[in-house]
Amino acid sequence: VAFVFGGQGSQYEKMGIELMRDFPIFRKTISRCDSIWNQLTGFSFIKKYGVFTEEIVTPELFNDPIIAQPAILFFQVAMVELLKFFNVTAHTIVGHSAGELGAFYAAGGISLKDIIRVCYYRSIGQQKTVGLGNMLVINDDINKITQYLEKYSNLELAVINSNKSFVLAGE
Prior knowledge:
Shape: globular
Strand order of the largest sheet: 3-5-4
Distance between the termini: 40 Å
Radius of gyration: 18 Å
Strand content: 15-25%
Largest sheet: 3 strands, antiparallel
């Protein structure tokens, strides 16, 4: 069994609604995450943004890192706890981008309190970059990527996913 934790972009407005309703362990874990968040920030993430409720308060902002990343982490942590409840454990755990936080928690590498703190500061940092550029995945060889970078000085190589998959960032 492998647990794969996706990053930003995997969130959706009504995620976790059915799980909150049907599984007390899921609901309890989300509440615990929110309590830790509240201690750190002075406000309830769930009450402020409506995430994990029937009506999200700020649907137009749901893709912003300040909302999306904590929502993803809370969901992933609650899923880990729900799966543990059903005696499902992972032999392999991987995470991509913001999903690395959930993966780190699932692997037992960090406490819930500390991973929520990391998520809080990570989302604040990434929120500052909203609107400052874009990212693009290109599946091609490095020679073609190098040509793009030489031709467009406002682009940078942001990520090397594999020898045939790259992410460029810039304006």
